[in-house]
Design a protein that fits this description.
This protein is an alpha/beta fold. It contains 8 helices and 12 strands. Strand 1 and strand 2 form a beta hairpin. The longest helix is centred in the middle third of the chain and has 15 residues.
Length: 256
């Protein structure tokens, strides 16, 4: 049986913010069709890792390697990484007054497709994906995230993902601020996007998102490092015992 090649991988990544190291040498391999979840307490470095991988200028990768479909992401700016197929749904999506949702998405899709862009199907696809996420069509003419609720912002992030169809989607705490109905709708959108040709990296605090988007692997991040990895059962154990359980295990290991 032929082994699948890695779709997305990073090796020994270290990330600094204003000279302070917040991620201390983490590595991960995601194959096509896989969903990985990164869980951890506040301040563990999860969001910093995702932002750095996407190329956010405030997060500096000081060491390591990052590849998407064999392409070196560290040689690319954030927009080039996006065109290569990397996507990040932000924890706190920012409003952009003056730019409508439809115009923003049209520009993003056109930039991704490049000079050969055929936009004839854009409007039809947009309406279809808005319906799939229970987003009223009136949002297409509203300014991006301007006056949107937390749940509305998160649905628009998933709408962007659905329209762009990236190879690798990183979702940074997409479940935060969502009530149960919005969470289910967003999860349906994520599951509809996920295929055996792409990958998903979920960053989350809580088990509840993983009740609807089933991970293949769960990685626990504490103090900027991956300290434990396992299957979906690991998330259930964290839900039962909390992150103190992981830290206690680390202390016990260090004392041996």
């Amino acid at each position: 049986m032929t082994q699948k090649k890695p779709l997305f991988e990073f090796k020994d990544i270290r990330v600094s913010v204003e000279g302070h190291e917040v991620v201390n040498g983490v590595s991960l391999t995601v194959k096509a069709g896989e969903t990985h979840a990164i869980m951890g307490p506040n301040g563990s470095g999860k969001s910093s890792l995702a932002n750095a991988l996407m190329g956010h200028p405030s997060y500096s990768i000081t060491k390591g390697e990052v590849y998407l479909d064999g392409k070196n992401m560290l040689e690319m700016e954030a927009d080039e990484r996006s065109r290569a197929g990397l996507f990040l749904a932000f924890q706190y999506p920012q409003p952009i007054p003056g730019v409508t949702v439809a115009n923003f998405l049209r520009s993003a899709v056109k930039a991704q497709r490049g000079k050969v862009a055929d936009m004839s199907d854009f409007r039809k696809n947009l309406k279809t994906e808005m319906d799939n996420l229970s987003i009223d069509h009136s949002f297409a003419t509203r300014y991006l995230n301007d006056g949107f609720s937390g749940g509305e912002k998160k649905r628009i992030e998933i709408l962007q993902m659905a329209m762009l169809q990236p190879k690798m989607a990183m979702l940074d705490e997409t479940d935060s601020g969502l009530d149960i109905d919005a969470l289910k709708t967003v999860a349906i959108g994520i599951n509809r996007f996920h295929k055996d040709t792409n990958g998903i990296l979920l960053v989350t605090h809580y088990q509840r998102m993983l009740n609807y988007v089933k991970p293949d692997y769960v990685h626990v991040m504490v103090h900027g490092q991956f300290v434990k990895s396992g299957g979906p059962e690991l998330a259930l154990k964290l839900e039962e015992h909390g992150y103190d359980w992981v830290e206690e295990k680390l202390i016990e290991k260090a004392e041996v």
